[in-house]
Amino acid sequence: MINRMVPVIQLKDVDLAYVTDHAATLALQDMNLSVEDGELISLVGPSGCGKTTLLSLMAGLISPSRGLVLLHGKPVTGPTPEVGYMLQQDYLFPWRSIVDNVLLGLELTNRLTKQSAELAEELLEGMGLSGTAQLYPHQLSGGMRQRVALARTLATNPDLLLLDEPFSALDYQTKLQLEDLVVDTLKQRRKTGILVTHDLSEAIAVSDRVIVLGSKPGRIRSVFEVPKNIREALPFYAREEPGFNALFHEIWGELEASERRE
Ligand SMILES: Nc1ncnc2c1ncn2[C@@H]1O[C@H](COP(=O)(O)OP(=O)(O)OP(=O)(O)O)[C@@H](O)[C@H]1O
How much is the pTM? Predict the structure, then answer.
């Protein structure tokens, strides 16, 4: 049973150093972050500031060198079905049908049941992909494949979705459509999401909060709350809301300052 009062994910005084035989890189220093149930936040910042490293910590793929990463108040000890990961590339298996790709996570965690195929059909329908279950990835467009990847991520019913630039390989129109779909789906299912993006307008349009990271070592520089009117609009319309441009320029200034100080 999820306690909705406890943050979904929390980082407390986290450092992360990558150590090899020849060198050590302090990728993150003194990270403190708390993300509440149902929140969608974006991480933005210069290349190398540790965005992907942060997601890897939350996914349990790496462990902090110092500090704690807590999922629902408990230390993350490794990958768990409670956390879903969606990447820039869809990584669909070309030899598996669309429905079998959607069911992959359930299969790998031994959770396939008689109802799973029905669940996959429902998810595909929700993604506007009715009738594609028996097709193969090469028969779908890039945007459709990314929707399948989202359905696959949701099939295991994670509480937290880590979204590492999932829209960046798409053409502009498809990207806007998919942003709307992802935000709508996450809000309706009351999922918590963390988006890494290089597109500041996307970050503002999609999120409740935008976290600006600085680099060398990676750390939080500032946190911007997105005003209610922008938050409540779907991303496509959020960009036309009053206050959007002013917030864009404010965060842009912060990003430029962060890059100048490198
Ligand atoms: N496996 C690794 N071994 C050693 N150093 C690493 C490793 N992965 C990342 N780093 C270093 O850690 C720092 C943070 O990298 P990370 O990929 O998390 O940044 P990022 O903000 O996601 O970058 P980008 O926006 O370019 O994707 C960088 O200095 C990078 O070179």
Answer: 0.92
